[in-house]
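=== RUN LOG ===
request id: a7f3
mode: sequence -> structure
chains: 1
length: 85
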Amino acid sequence: MVGLTAWHTFFQTTHLTLHEKKVLVIGYGLVGQGVAAAAKAFGGQVMVAEIDPARRLQAAYDGWHVVDLQEAIASGGRGGHSDRR
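=== RESULT ===
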């Protein structure tokens, strides 16, 4: 799993945890899907930003909190437009 390997490397390098931290995954292709799933498995509060309408829909259908990238960045992860309520 691509996302799992990335997170293991992150944890080994930084000695940080994702427990209850907000995680913004930019892009919901195969890598983004793996990163989102791994971040959730490690306790992160995952938001997904995707510009492609079909992938945004897929992310929402998969149960992710889908946000507008610019609004998520501007709000520092505290809000922004969401496709899920």
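=== NOTES ===
The chain has four helices and three strands.
Residues 81-85 have pLDDT under 50 and may be disordered.
=== END ===
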